[in-house]
What we know:
Helix content: 40-55%
Structural class: alpha/beta
CATH topology of the domain at 2-180 and 233-264: Rossmann fold
Strand content: 15-25%
Number of helices: 11
Amino acid sequence: xxxxxxxxxxxxxxxxxxxxxxxxxxxxxxxxxxxxxxxxxxxxxxxxxxxxxxxxxxxxxxxxxxxxxxxxxxxxxxxxxxxxxxxxxxxxxxxxxxxxxxxxxxxxxxxxxxxxxxxxxxxxxxxxxxxxxxxxxxxxxxxxxxxxxxxxxxxxxxxxxxxxxxxxxxxxxxxxxxxxxxxxxxxxxxxxxxxxxxxxxxxxxxxxxxxxxxxxxxxxxxxxxxxxxxxxxxxxxxxxxxxxxxxxxxxxxxxxxxxxxxxxxxxxxxxxxxxxxxxxxxxxxxxxxxxxxxxxxxxxxxxxxxxxxxxxxxxxxxxxxxxxxxxxxxxxxxxxxx
Length: 338
């Protein structure tokens, strides 16, 4: 029996595939390569000594998804595949709704037809909007997200919960905070095609001279240094949480199960702190300038991770600067590889 990982060559997906393989799961990957490249598969194989099955297509192609599910005995799914850039989602709302929701509905439809359970959804802390209190727990009321990207995640959660209740399935919603860093081997990491949308890849590329200057969006937030605060979690720690969540689902004897977990470190760091931490950790300088706030961004978000620690036996272990060291090691590898 195998685990289907959609978007399994993406940033979080590839690190999770590594952890699954190292925990002796058989893995089947579907990824349309829209924000990654096939070379990631080589990195996964070098790290693990195993080569997962890989199918390069868009999940909106339901007929191809059906063929993959016919070809493999799938006992669960971790669904990463989605467009994920907050800023871009504001400019391309129709494309985001179409891609992120149609692919999800196709998956659930096929799983329902084949009576497959154990579905993990890659969600986001954006579903909380700008929460009124910190830290954010799973009991924090959801608000209308600030971005179209966040709305697709919130809608996705509602679709999956309705599906689980009506069809008696076991599902888990994992609400990530901000993943950073790369695998310690530097064989896989965050690989944005074109201009990065996330902070740390832009910091890396600026330090490496690929980008002239980093833009910090907003220095007038009501925070100690005026820049927005997020909870930055090391990507390998995050990947390990997926394995823990999957094992919990597979072990559960319940007919219907809806689990929700926040995945972060429980500590907030400002954008400026990340930049300065990167400079300290790697002994490099980052040229940056302040710009106006970006549409769709919130002021502050960091997690209460008590539930994940208690129920999954999982806790983030790697601190901010150590995670940023792995990011720079990955950037140096990309330079050599190029």
